[in-house]
Amino acid sequence: MRTKNYNDNEYEDYSINRKLKVSDNDSGKLIDYFLTEEIESIDDYIDFLREVEMAKPNDSIRLHINCYGGDVNVALNIYDALRNTEANVQVNIEGIAASAASMIMLAGNYWSIYPHSCVMIHAWSSFSYGKWNELEDRFKFEKEIWENQFREIYKKFLTDEEIEQCLKGKDFWFSADETSKRLDNYQAEEAAKNSAANSIVEKYTQMMQKEFDLLNKQKAIPKTPSKKKPTAKPKK
User: Fold this and answer.
1) Domains of the chain
2) How far is CA 134 from CA 120, 138, 148, in A?
3) Residue 11 — pLDDT band, cuts 50, 70, 90?
4) This prediction's pTM
5) Which phi and psi angles does 11 have, rounded to 5°?
6) Can you say whether the dihedral through the CA atoms of 105, 158, 143, 99 is positive or negative?
7) Burial class of 119 by CB neighbour count within 10 A (0 to 12, 13 to 18, 19+)
8) 45-49, 137-141, 150-154: range with lowest mean pLDDT
9) Pick the residue with more confidence: 178 or 205?
10) Please, which contacts does 16-19 make with residues 24 or more away whose CB atoms are closer than 8 Å?
11) How does 150-180 read in b/e, with b if 16+ C-beta sit within 10 Å?
12) Coil, strand or helix: which one is 200?
């Protein structure tokens, strides 16, 4: 297989050991990315995020995960980008998807899980330094914001009880089989949600189209010019 070099637009062999590969297929682009190292700096993902942002509905993103996690803010950036892309996102769990990597895992539309892979989820951790009032303000902010984000992201994969246990410090490990079952439920809920949203959009689109058709019909009807009655001239 041949693939485009996203840096200089020349073609290279697919065998080159690179994390990001962009190739053309029959319907559009195929964007392959291997998330394998600790998630640290957003600078490591700029080329990938650029491809995700430019992806079209006919393109496909295939994300390969074998990662122990890392920086939550960087992971949130990747998660949001994948959730907002117009392309189809397939996530392949090919080893471990732990901590922040488990969050990125949930940004897919489709999943493939290797038999000996596993997933680990726990509450996010951080460290801070500074004056006491700064630490106190940051703690209050992060507790409210991050806990809400955690609940929002994992609510279809974990139960409410498991989420609360996570936030209190419990780690959850899932085998490939258990992960597959939970992702099936997650995907079904996503499909139902998208179907309902599409139905609402279609309904209002039809209503708007009827309004436009009516307006155009009214514009097309020629107006009959009104005849003015002659006014009688006053007699002298």
Assistant:
1) 2-122+171-196 (3.90.226.10)
2) 32, 6, 21
3) very low
4) 0.72
5) -95, 140
6) negative
7) buried
8) 137-141
9) 178
10) 19/48
11) beebbebbbeeeebeebbeeeebebeeeebb
12) helix
- Can you tell me whether residue 143 is helix, strand or coil? helix
As a whole number of angstroms, the distance between CA 162 and CA 62 comes to 29
If you ran DSSP here, which 8-state letter would residue 39 be given?
A: B
DSSP character string of 193-223: HHHHHHHHHHHHHHHHHHHHHHHHHHHHSPP
Q: Which residue is associated with the tokens 């080329």?
A: 47
Average pLDDT over residues 77-91: 96
Q: Which DSSP category does 2 fall into?
A: E
Q: Please name the helix (run of DSSP H) or strand (run of DSSP E) that holds residue 34, with its range, or none.
A: strand 29-35
Strands (E), 28-72: 29-35, 60-67
For residue 58, report the phi and psi dihedrals to the nearest 5 degrees. Answer: -85, -5
Helices 132-154 and 72-84 cross at an angle (nearest 10°) of 40
